[in-house]
Amino acid sequence: MFPQSDFRPRCAKWLIATGLFLMLSACVDKPTTLERVKEDGVLRVITRNSPATYFQDRNGETGFEYELVKRFAEDLGVELKIETSDNLDELFDQMQKPGGPVLAAAGLIDTEQRKKQVRFSHPYLDVTPQVIYRNGQSRPTDAGDLVGKRITVLKGSSHAEQLAALKLKNPAIEYEESDAVEVVDLLRMVDEGQIDLTLVDSNELAMNQVYFPNVRVAFDLGEGRQQRWAVALGEDNSLINEINSFLDKVQKNGMLQRLKDRYYGHVDVLGYVGAYTFAQHLQERLPKYEKHFQTFAKKEQVDWRLLAAIGYQESMWQPSVTSKTGVRGLMMLTQNTAQAMGVSNRLDAKQSIQGGAKYFAYVKDQLDDKIKEPDRTWFALASYNIGGGHLDDARKLAENEGLNPNKWLDVKKMLPRLSQKKWYSKTRYGYARGGEPVSFVANIRRYYDILTWVNQPQLEGSQVAESNLHVPGVNKVKPPEDNPPL
Ligand code: GLU
Fold this sequence. Notes:
Layout: H1 4-29, H2 33-40, E1 42-47, E2 55-57, E3 60-62, H3 64-76, E4 79-84, H4 88-96, E5 103-109, E6 118-127, E7 129-134, E8 152-154, H5 158-169, E9 176-178, H6 183-191, E10 198-201, H7 202-208, E11 215-220, E12 225-232, H8 238-252, H9 255-263, H10 271-284, H11 286-300, H12 304-315, H13 335-340, H14 349-366, H15 375-386, H16 388-400, H17 408-414, H18 421-424, H19 435-454
Parallel strand pairs: 1-4, 1-5, 8-9
Antiparallel strand pairs: 2-3, 5-12, 6-12, 7-10, 7-11
Helix pairs in contact: 11-12, 11-14, 12-19, 14-15, 15-16, 15-19, 16-17
The protein binds glutamic acid.
């Protein structure tokens, strides 16, 4: 029998040693979230299927969130795997599940409720929550005007939280939360008068406004907010820290601004009237020429929607337009260009599109090899509009200013200088209406975005496709039986 006094210290030492060993082995064995992602070689991201976040076009996956998170995955050296959730509640549920996606990149606002479930990253996009109403109805101007209105918002959204807070102060406000719809549906419902009001973030409205000619901003509800990525609270800090350094880096090196420019830089180009007109022309005019755009785009290896977007910018898809400066037809070709491209009758829509396609492919081919996509496309458009010589002048001006002559964001700042003597007198090709290609490119990018979104195959089988536009390429789909439209 061991004397007790002898047993206790030895036992305690043993216990401490075992405990330390277990703790140490736990530290050694359990990788951090970031290590796990790197070991798996896969970054699993959850998002929403919406034009402002993630969607697929004929070239594959695209969208602001997608592009940003793709660059993050590239930085980590891992493969990106995107998952989409049907609604916001499901998105947060999925994140809590063991083995679920580690990151949400879905245009999310950091609300108080959500902070109980996830850790938010540094911000990457400033937005404002906006109350949306239908043109022709009386315009609400403050929160008091929400009383007595049929209001629907996304279930579990930051906007539902905002309305809940307002209702505490003013119980007469009624609203519905729906988990069967996306932002596009909410805007359509306002557009068609099924509901009176909705509340969405300004970036979502900007992306979608063109499909819904009747929607208008009533007022901004509260302060501006910021969209952020989110990681589940159950994870350690390794991934969120890595995300924050990445976001800080892309903020500093201009990549974030370039992405914003690509997706949002041109959204205010159309305005309400333009949006309405475009929606009409999409239905009435494009179907007559779509085949030609497709045929000749394929032949010249350009995206037909880009070609169609150029056609809209040039003539609003009208084949017999003639300008005072002598350019004519659907693609507004000059006499010289038409001749060089083998076009005998510029007012013939088919010939005009063929000539335009050939000319666009030609100017793109002439560009400096140092200009890479997507900038290459924007440079080609600018060159199509103003000519390669003037574009090179602007690139030289950019270089002199210490800017990047191969980035559209930088060169477009220089182009307007070509119309100021102080600058153009020092250039090789002299005066040019340099502001013109800037708006030319911005407009075309806007039309191109719309055509890309309207003509995406994955709308098939999704609820978001219940568009009010009968446009070519839109697959109208009925919502599932158990999710009747509101
Ligand atoms: N940003 C919203 C949210 O955080 C999602 C929908 C929207 O952008 O309108 O809940």
